[in-house]
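[Amino acid chain]
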Amino acid sequence: MSFRHRPTYTNVLASRELIPGSARALMRTIATATEALNRIAVAESGDPATVVAAVAAWKRAQDQINAYTDDLLGLAVLGGAAVSTTARATGQRPETLATRLAASPAASLRGLDLVRVGDEWVVDTSAATP
């Protein structure tokens, strides 16, 4: 997937509007995943079974955390962040990040005119030629 298109005005608007909600979803997932670990961290003592359960909960949440992270970075790219700069800042190769963002609905809209329909941003097809 190529992210060479410049973001449109509506890409920037959609990105800025959607980023906070995406960040909240990521933070809720992280908070839930770390709940058991937090309880262990503040306890006076811990037992192995509790540790195993807490780490298992954290590991199970990793795929969802990664998906929300990719969604958030996809919104940043939609709004104008360069994939190469974003990749370097997040410790990834640009090719790796581009592959991960290929599944991002937001990043795939970069360069396309968008229109708000209800609570969603969709591709504006009104200017399409027959």
In short: The CA atoms of residues 45 and 59 lie 22 Å apart. The first helix runs from residue 9 to 42.
